[in-house]
C-alpha cells in the first residue's frame, strides 16, 4: 500500500521558518516526481515545487522561489520542504504528491490531476 505522510506543520510567527517532511512507502519511487502543493481556505490547490526522485533538478512556483527549497533523503525515503521568511499568506494545508515522470506529466505538472498519490496534508499557520 502506497503511503505519503506529511509532518512538521504548526504555528509560526511571520518571518520564521518551518521544515516539512513527507515520508514515502509502499513502492519504489525512482521513476517518480515528488511535489509539494498547498491549499488555503476557499482557494484552489497551488503547486509549490517538484523534484525528481531519481535526480536533483528542482522547479518552483514563482510565488515561493527563493524562500522555499525542496530536498530529498534517499536513505530515509523522505522529501522535505524548507520554508523560510514565512508570511501570513503562506497559511494553508500543505500536501506532498507523487507522479510518474512521463511527457504528459511534464506538460501538466502544476495541475493536481497530474499526481497519482497524495498525502493527507499538514496545517501551517503563520501569525502576524
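-> sequence recovered:
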Amino acid at each position: 500500500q502506497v503511503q505519503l505522510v506529511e509532518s512538521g506543520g504548526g504555528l509560526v510567527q511571520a518571518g520564521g521558518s518551518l521544515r516539512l517532511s513527507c515520508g514515502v512507502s509502499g513502492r519504489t519511487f525512482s521513476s517518480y516526481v515528488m511535489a509539494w502543493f498547498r491549499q488555503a481556505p476557499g482557494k484552489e490547490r497551488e503547486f509549490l515545487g517538484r523534484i525528481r526522485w531519481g535526480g536533483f533538478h528542482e522547479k518552483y512556483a514563482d510565488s515561493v522561489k527563493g524562500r522555499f527549497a525542496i530536498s530529498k533523503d534517499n536513505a530515509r525515503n523522505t522529501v522535505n520542504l524548507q520554508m523560510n521568511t514565512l508570511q501570513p499568506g503562506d497559511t494553508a494545508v500543505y500536501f506532498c504528491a507523487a507522479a510518474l515522470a512521463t511527457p504528459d506529466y511534464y506538460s501538466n505538472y502544476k495541475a493536481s490531476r497530474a499526481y497519482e498519490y497524495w498525502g493527507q496534508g499538514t496545517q501551517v499557520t503563520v501569525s502576524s
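The two ends are 40 Å apart (CA to CA).
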